[in-house]
Amino acid sequence: MSWDTVIGLEIHVQLATKTKIFSGASTAYGAEPNTQACAIDLAMPGTLPVLNKQAVNYAIMFGLAIDAEIGQVSAFERKNYFYPDLPKGYQTTQLEKPIVGRGNVEIQLADGSTKNVRIHHAHLEEDAGKSLHEGNFSSKFSGIDLNRAGTPLIEIVSEPDMNNAEEAIAFAKKIHSIVTSLGICDGEMSQGSMRFDVNVSVKPSGTDILGTRTETKNLNSFKFMEEAIKREVERQIDVIEDGGAIVQETRLYNGETKVARSMRSKEEANDYRYFPCPDLLPVIVSDEQVAELRRNLPELPDARQARFTQQYNLSDYDAGILSSDAAMAKYFEAAASTCSDAKLAANWTIGELSARLNSEDLSITNSPVSAQQLAGLITRIADNSISGKMAKEVFEGIWAGEGSADEIIEARGLKQVSDSGALEQMVADVLAANQTMVDDYINTDEAKRKKKLGGFMGQIMKASKGQANPQQVNQILAKKLNELL
Ligand code: ADP
Ligand code: MG
Predict the structure, then answer these.
(1) In terms of domains, do 267 and 405 share one?
(2) Domain of 34?
(3) Does residue 325 share a domain with residue 262?
(4) DSSP element (H, E) containing 276
(5) Are 290 and 64 in contact (CB under 8 A)?
C-alpha cells in the first residue's frame, strides 16, 4: 500500500523591533538572564500593556508581501495556561480577528516547477520566556530566563498544502527569505528568531480524507526540520501498517541527539479559555496606513530574482539562490557593481564564498572577505591577470587577512603571464624538448588528438610555474601543432 504525506506549518517569526510588543523593555539577544524583562512583560498587578506600533506595521508588511487581506479591526485575546516560562499565566495573542488574513506564497522546487501554498492567517502575539536546563546528573538544575517574554511575534499558519519534506523546506525557506527581505525579522534561526512547528499526517494514496496529524514543535533549523518530517512520516506509516492508530499529539524532535518523542496529547482551543484581553483596545488599521506601508515595501525575493536575471544576465537558478537571502543579495550587488563581470561575481558568491562561510559557520554579513575585496579578485580573473587556480590561492589570502587581491598577487608573485611573445617561446621550447610526444601526436587519429593536448599543457604550465595564461597557451599550442601536421 502506498501513502500520501500531508504537511502544514506554523511558523513563529520574531519581529525585529527594538522593544517588546507591550513594553519599552529591550529585545536585544544575548543579555544576562532576566535583565530585560520588566513588570509589564510579567503582567505585575497595576501595570498596563501599550501596543508597539512598529510590531503592527511589520505584521501588515508581511501581509502585503503575501497578498493577504489585512484585518481592518484586529483584537488581542488571552490564551490561558501555566508553564514555568510564562509566570503571568496567559499569553496575549490573537484568535478570532488576526491582523493578517488569507494569503499565498509561491515556492520553487528542485525540478523547476512551482507550487502555491495557501496561508490561512498570521497573527500577532507575545513570546514566552525560556527554560534552561543545565548541569549534569549529579547537579542538574533548571533556570528560567524571562528576557524573551513579551518579544513580538507573528505566527504564520499555512494550509496543509505541502506533500513532502522538500516542499515544506522550500516553503520554510521562502518565508525566511520574505521576512528577511522585508527587514521585519533578523532571520537568525540559531538564536530562535524563527521557529517551525510541523504538522504531519499520512493517508492512503489518492484518497481525500486527511489522516490524524501530529505536531512537532519548535524546530529551528531546515536540516532538523527535514529529518523530523521524514522520521515522523515513517513512524506514522509503521504504526498504521501494524494495525495501530495515530494519536493527535504534540511531539519534540531533538536535532542533536536525533531523538523524537511525544510531549503531550494535543489540546483544543477551548482548553485555553481564550477571552478578549480587557487591557488592550482593538487595533484599527486605516487604509492610509496600509497604503503608506505598501508604497515603502522593500523589494521582495521574487521581484529581485527577476531583476537579477535581467540586470546581470544570470540564470534563473543563480538569481534565485542570490535573491533568496537578503544579505547575500546585497553582498552580490555590492560586488557585481564594482567589478566588470557580474556572472563571475555570482559564481564566486554562490560557490567558493558560500562554501567557505558554511564550513566556518559564518553568515555573509560577517564574511572575512568583503564584497569590495571579492570584486577586486574578480577584476583580476576577468582581465586574465590570474588563472582560476591562482584565484583560489588569492581568495585564501584575502580570507586570511593578507589584504586586497592586488596586494596578494604582488606579494606572492602570482602574476599570470599573458604576453603572447613570451608564451609562444615557452610553447616552442616545450615542443622542442618533447619530440617523442610530438611524433606521437602527429601519428594519432585525428579524433583522438584532442586528448593528447593535456600532456603538453601540463608540461607548459609546469615550465611556467603555473603562471602561463591557460587559454592563450591552449590556442598557441593548437596552432603550432597544427602547423606540424
Ligand atoms: P489547531 O487549531 O488545532 O492548531 P489548525 O486547523 O489551526 O489546528 O491547524 C494547525 C496546522 O496544522 C495548520 O498549519 C494546518 O495546515 C495543519 N494541519 C491541519 N490538519 C492537518 C492534517 N490532517 N495533516 C497535516 N497538517 C494539518
Ligand atoms: Mg492552530
Answers:
(1) no
(2) 3-290
(3) no
(4) strand 275-276
(5) yes
Q: What is the pTM of this model?
A: 0.84
Looking up residue 470, the CATH number of its domain turns out to be 1.10.10.410
Closest residue CA from atom 15 of ligand 1: 8
The Cβ of residue 82 has, within 10 Å, a number of other Cβ atoms equal to 9
**Do residue 244 and residue 269 come from a single domain?**
yes
**Where do runs of H (alpha helix) occur along 362-469?**
371-382, 388-399, 405-412, 420-433, 435-443, 446-463
> Rounded to whole angstroms, how far apart are CA atoms 65 and 182?
8
Q: Which of 251, 268, 290 is the last residue of a domain?
A: 290
Atom of ligand 1 nearest to the CA of 266: 3
Which is it for strands 214-219 and 249-254: parallel, antiparallel or unpaired? parallel
Euclidean distance between CA atoms 317 and 109, whole angstroms: 11
Q: Are residues 367 and 438 in the same domain?
A: no
Per-residue burial over 390-413, b if 16 or more Cβ lie within 10 Å, else e, is bbeebbebbbeeeebbeebbeeee
Q: Is 158 in the pocket of ligand 1 (CB under 6 A)?
A: yes
Residues 365 and 469 in one domain: no
Distance between Cα 445 and ligand 1 center (Å): 68
Is 409:385 a contact under the CB 8 Å cutoff? yes
Which atom from ligand 1 is nearest to the alpha carbon of 211? Answer: 23
Tell me the per-residue pLDDT of 157-191, one tens digit each, with 9 for 90 and over.
999 999 999 999 999 999 999 999 999 999 999 89
In a shared domain, residues 38 and 127: yes
Tens digit of each residue's pLDDT (9 = 90 or more) over 276-304:
999 999 999 999 999 999 999 999 999 99
Residue 477 in grid coordinates: 599550442
Answer yes or no: do 76 and 196 share one domain.
Answer: yes
Number of domains, the chain: 3
